[in-house]
């Protein structure tokens, strides 16, 4: 428990202190955000706001994770390191995307192929590695079973199909968070809630680990406590960044932050065996991504728009809602999703114990 609190505190502190430094550096270098011309009129004033603030989130998360282990004299786990690898790897892809946008002064960075290849390489590497490194109890960071709150024994993937599944999960979550990152503080606030939910889930899995307390309702998860430390470090980093990213934002996280945060959600869902439950935990992210898919599908088939603009949050802005109203109400929806997911998690445990 101490490691979790230390990681959260250090993540918040590093992020809240590092972000203003990045604001000054990026402002001097002209690393400003480009804005879509077809977007809400109020967003035009945001052009030139420093971007790539996700660097602070990534740096704070990594620093908090390792410092928490150093302070408590604990070795990092394979599961924790692999989730961090996934987040940092996707963050690098996002950084390249942001940097190209800035250099070419346009709202498009890496082309679709380059971005796809970058996500593919990172996700496939992660997918292969999480099936290795079994501990003395035979547990690997992930299993080849599809999972809800724990592995579903009826659905086991062959290794190759599992790696493909991991790519779909990683690509889906990274893009979902990326779509949500369109309003000041929206993605950062929702990510903090989702990651805090994973702190609770992973900590509970540690308390009822089959290694420590064998019983009907125990969890076969490798390194759950360390996964809670990762989630706590990232949640603290998001809150610290939100201090500067909340409306009116002094800096944006950019693809650097959104892809990294999507990687954290994907990695935690796979290593905690909660891939299906994650859809509920990150329900707002899912709605944002689905809104984009529906908008494209409807427009291509009927040549009409289902929403005024996708992702979904822009639809409400164009309907006349104030930006802060959209943000706060979406935060509330995200909180409801997280609380409902925790209820599902706990009720399953009670059912399994009975």
Automatic annotation (TrEMBL):
The places in or outside the cell where this protein is found are: Cell membrane; Membrane
Query: Per its UniProt entry, what is the enzyme's top EC class, as one word?
Result: transferase
Q: Where does Mg(2+) bind?
A: 178, 255
CDD domains listed in its UniProt record: GT_MraY (cd06852)
User: Which pathway does the record list?
Assistant: Cell wall biogenesis; peptidoglycan biosynthesis
A molecular function (GO) held by this record is: phospho-N-acetylmuramoyl-pentapeptide-transferase activity
- Give the protein's cofactors: Mg(2+)
Keyword tRNA-binding applies: no
Annotated membrane topology is: Multi-pass membrane protein
* Reactions this protein catalyses: UDP-N-acetyl-alpha-D-muramoyl-L-alanyl-gamma-D-glutamyl-meso-2,6-diaminopimeloyl-D-alanyl-D-alanine + di-trans,octa-cis-undecaprenyl phosphate = di-trans,octa-cis-undecaprenyl diphospho-N-acetyl-alpha-D-muramoyl-L-alanyl-D-glutamyl-meso-2,6-diaminopimeloyl-D-alanyl-D-alanine + UMP
Residue ranges crossing the lipid bilayer per the database entry: 6-26, 52-71, 77-96, 116-134, 154-173, 185-205, 225-244, 251-270, 276-299, 326-346
Which Enzyme Commission number(s) are listed? 2.7.8.13
Q: Which UniProt keywords apply?
A: Cell cycle, Cell division, Cell membrane, Cell shape, Cell wall biogenesis/degradation, Magnesium, Membrane, Metal-binding, Peptidoglycan synthesis, Transferase, Transmembrane, Transmembrane helix
Which InterPro entries does this UniProt record tie to the protein? Answer: Glycosyl_transferase_4 (IPR000715), PNAcMuramoyl-5peptid_Trfase (IPR003524), PNAcMuramoyl-5peptid_Trfase_CS (IPR018480)
GO biological process, any: cell division
Q: Which domain of life is it from?
A: Bacteria
Keyword Cell wall biogenesis/degradation in annotation:
yes
Report the function annotation for this chain.
Catalyzes the initial step of the lipid cycle reactions in the biosynthesis of the cell wall peptidoglycan: transfers peptidoglycan precursor phospho-MurNAc-pentapeptide from UDP-MurNAc-pentapeptide onto the lipid carrier undecaprenyl phosphate, yielding undecaprenyl-pyrophosphoryl-MurNAc-pentapeptide, known as lipid I.
User: Family per UniProt?
Assistant: Belongs to the glycosyltransferase 4 family. MraY subfamily.
* Name of the protein: Phospho-N-acetylmuramoyl-pentapeptide-transferase
Q: Which organism is it from?
A: Amycolatopsis alkalitolerans
